[in-house]
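Backbone-to-sequence.
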């Protein structure tokens, strides 16, 4: 429980609020103490001015009534500091004299001064001393003092109010932290449960629907995309196994049948025996191509593919690719054309370029119906060499235009789905690309673009 994110998030949030509140409270108390002391000193200074002025006006009298002084200052404590020891300018026992050295003479000569006062008869005061001049001579100092307990009572009241506000703030912060914790952790717990299901092989698990546009929602969305891609990858793997199994079984069955017939002497005629050997060689070549395609894709995915650098006559290479499908075009009555508008020679891997063009032509013939049209064009524009394969097949939907280049994916479930995937990966490895344009009902156009 203590290690869970659901507990630690609100705990850290609340701890931060508490620490910030304590720091703010201490600063507020410190500021208020300074402010209260400064204000009290200002009040005492004003009171001392009034008392000294009152005494100066009545300095000719034998004494100054205590009631008159108390009325002037509103009841604060009044003391007198004589300059000459044992001398008191005031009559009456109410006014108490402080020792001569309570405030140094030098400070009194400079004017009014404030200080903390702890008289021998007890108490703690905040005091202001103002010099008193009689006949132009410094006679002493009038001291007005306020008990510090009055100041303390003010900031104690402030602390009580701050504590009450702080407690309310902690309660509100706790509720808010709990709410935020649930809002954050519940989607994460849902994603965690979904991850457990996916780890167990259940790719169809329902992903919690994201709300809003925050980071958790983005994570849920990307997690859903990941689960969908994993499910698609799993399906592609199954399709690959089924396709490869079928593609391997067909030539192996043919090879096994002909080998058995030759071994058992069923075929005696020399021409029939030559035909069987030709079938065996053709099916073995078919197996070799299939295994080569799988190995090529594995090397491309692992970035362990070696590209040769040699001068390649693109016109001659396209002519070879074109001739390889001539018999198929004649047999299926397909209008098979070529248009070579340039004669470029580039530095690349000729065998791999031939493999790409052959894969594109093979895909075009596969989807072009009998009596349709397939064309091969070669152009050299803007420093790039383009090989264009166009067909009059059914076209490709926008949703399928990216899928057809994925390994082991086939639109009709036939074949291995490796031809276009290998073609695109090889094009990228050679520094080029394959562009696709297609419209439903009007065929497709694949363009191999290579650096010139």
């Amino acid at each position: 429980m203590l290690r869970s994110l659901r507990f630690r998030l609100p705990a850290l949030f609340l701890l931060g609020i508490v620490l910030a509140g304590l720091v703010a409270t201490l600063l507020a108390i410190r500021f208020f103490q300074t402010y209260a002391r400064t204000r009290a000193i200002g009040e005492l200074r004003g009171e001392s001015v009034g008392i000294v002025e009152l005494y100066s006006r009545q300095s000719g009298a034998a004494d100054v009534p205590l009631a008159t002084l108390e009325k002037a200052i509103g009841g604060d404590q009044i003391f007198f500091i004589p300059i000459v020891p044992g001398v008191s300018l005031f009559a009456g026992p109410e006014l108490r004299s402080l020792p001569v050295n309570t405030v140094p003479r030098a400070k009194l000569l400079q004017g009014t001064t404030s200080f903390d006062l702890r008289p021998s008869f007890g108490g703690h005061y905040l005091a202001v001393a103002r010099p008193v001049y009689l006949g132009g001579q410094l006679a002493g100092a009038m001291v007005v003092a306020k008990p510090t307990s009055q100041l303390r009572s003010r900031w104690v009241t402030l602390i009580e109010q701050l504590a009450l506000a702080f407690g309310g703030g902690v309660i509100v912060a706790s509720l808010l932290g709990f709410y935020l914790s649930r809002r954050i952790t519940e989607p994460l717990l849902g994603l965690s449960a979904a991850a457990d299901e996916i780890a167990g092989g259940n790719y169809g698990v329902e992903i919690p629907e994201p709300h809003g546009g925050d980071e958790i929602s983005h994570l849920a969305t990307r997690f859903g995309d990941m689960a969908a891609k994993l499910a698609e990858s799993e399906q592609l793997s199954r399709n690959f196994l089924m396709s490869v199994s079928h593609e391997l079984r067909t030539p192996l069955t043919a090879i096994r049948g002909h080998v058995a017939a030759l071994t058992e002497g069923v075929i005696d005629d020399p021409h029939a025996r030559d035909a069987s050997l030709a079938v065996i060689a053709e099916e073995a070549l078919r197996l070799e191509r299939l295994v080569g395609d799988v190995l090529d894709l594995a090397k491309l995915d692992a970035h362990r593919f070696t590209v040769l650098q040699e001068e390649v006559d693109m016109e001659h290479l396209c002519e070879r690719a074109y001739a390889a499908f001539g018999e198929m075009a004649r047999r299926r009555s397909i209008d098979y054309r070529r248009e070579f508008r340039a004669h470029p020679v580039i530095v690349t891997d000729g065998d791999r370029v031939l493999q790409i063009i052959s894969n594109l032509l093979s895909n075009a013939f596969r989807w072009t119906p009998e009596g349709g049209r397939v064309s091969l064009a070669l152009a050299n524009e803007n420093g790039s060499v383009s090989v264009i394969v166009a067909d009059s097949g059914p076209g490709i939907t926008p949703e399928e235009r990216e899928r057809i280049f994925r390994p082991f994916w086939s639109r009709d479930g036939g074949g291995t789905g490796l031809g276009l995937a290998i073609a695109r990966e090889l094009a990228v490895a050679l520094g080029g690309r394959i562009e696709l344009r297609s419209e439903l009902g009007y065929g497709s156009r694949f363009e191999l673009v290579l650096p010139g």
